[in-house]
Design a protein that fits this description.
mainly alpha
Length: 73
């Protein structure tokens, strides 16, 4: 079951608030508790939520970058 954009955004906001306040445990809307080992794990969870939100809204990050260079002539 896919989460809605509002649910993803609420989860991201809760995780961001917890990370900013130094709390490592987050409780979701269902009452389930998630305890993170450290800041790196929380940062990875935030990045995953950001990717899911971007994909759900159609604003996914580009997968290919093209460089065009010249000698300035």
């Amino acid at each position: 079951m896919a989460l809605t954009i509002d649910q993803l955004t609420a989860a991201r906001d809760a995780l961001l608030d917890a990370r900013a306040s130094g709390v490592r445990e987050v409780r979701d809307q269902n009452g389930e508790s998630i305890t993170y080992k450290g800041d790196r794990e929380m940062a990875n969870a935030l990045a995953a939520l950001d990717r899911e939100i971007a994909q759900a809204t159609g604003r996914a990050a580009p997968t290919t970058l093209r460089f065009r260079t010249s000698k300035g002539t």
